[in-house]
């Protein structure tokens, strides 16, 4: 089984959205038992619920929102996961600072799996409107599809 961790700052919108998308796309391909997805935040306050706007967008597009609450990245995550995918460069830098040097090859940007987009980052929609969450969902879909194609 391949274990993939998706990481943003607070683990209340981008990374849980990406996790829900990747999990559901993998299941649709019949690969749900081969791939495990989870999410965490580099600066998460554990126990927060998924942002209501993220939940609404996921439901609108027929994705099952994650039931788990936010959690902070742990040192054990670098050992447990085969891939650790950040939503943006700030979070990737935070991962690389915390990650043992020998394991840094596991850390990448999610959108590195969607090079045709011409973007490297999934922007943080938290302080914006619903349109920002819709955009994030589309980027998560593109990154997840590319990831699944490579795995």
From TrEMBL:
Its EC number is 3.1.3.48. Keywords: Hydrolase, Protein phosphatase. Coiled coil: none annotated. One of its GO terms (molecular function) is protein tyrosine phosphatase activity. Residues 2-150 form the Phosphotyrosine protein phosphatase I domain. It comes from the Bacteria. It is an enzyme of class 3 (hydrolase). PANTHER family: LOW MOLECULAR WEIGHT PHOSPHOTYROSINE PROTEIN PHOSPHATASE (PTHR11717:SF7), LOW MOLECULAR WEIGHT PROTEIN TYROSINE PHOSPHATASE (PTHR11717). This is protein-tyrosine-phosphatase.
